Amino acid sequence: MTHDTHDQDQKIALVTGASRGLGSALAEALAKRGYHIIAVARTTGALEELDDRIRAAGGHPATLAPMDVIESPAMLQLTKAIAERWGGLDVWVHTAIHAAPLGPAGHVDGKDWTKSFAVNATATQNLVGLMEPLLRARNGTAIIPDDPRGGEKFFGAYGASKSAQISLAKSWQAEAERVGPRVLTPEPAPMPTATRGRFYPGEDRAALSPCADEAEKILADAGL
């Protein structure tokens, strides 16, 4: 994990799944609001490009953490480092996702099914436990965007695992209503992301909402 020196009173936002799409857009939007971004994704080059864009826009240099969210020891190490360095989190954005290929329910590849639940459900469950004390320490906000595909044709693996993720998030939301943190599950409009491109390869992407616009709307609705 690479970082620069920051004051303890700096606003801190962790974005898991920060390398592209909505996660990258939310990281940039939060950086413009004065947050120091801790960016997690598997691709180092994409994280460095995100940091370049944040710096070019006048934001604080980001902390880059090239890690896979399914690696529990790495996530534990990251959260310990955040606790020691900053004492907590103001915002956690979770957009890391595995988008399995579309196909009939009876023909879902076993490896795709397993990876979908490992990334979309199990990793989220692990991260909720790790992030909760960090967010409570700063009266923070968790943002886990929804993409309701459960029950749609050919979305068996993605729809089921994403539904599991959001079901968990909403249980956490209800449990945390009095004690914190605040948990939000916004549903952005369709965006021209790589994930959607795999689902709808022939779609007119010009008709979709830019990720930056959806990021701004999510943060505005959250009061951030």
From TrEMBL:
CDD domains the record matches: SDR_c
Keywords: Oxidoreductase
InterPro entries: NAD(P)-bd_dom_sf, SDR_fam
Domain of life assignment: Bacteria
Transmembrane segments annotated in the record for this chain: none
Family per record: Belongs to the short-chain dehydrogenases/reductases (SDR) family.
Gene Ontology molecular function terms on file: oxidoreductase activity
Organism: Paracoccus aurantiacus
Keyword Kinase: no
Name by which UniProt lists this protein: SDR family oxidoreductase
The keyword Oxidoreductase is annotated on this UniProt entry: yes
Record's GO cellular component terms: membrane
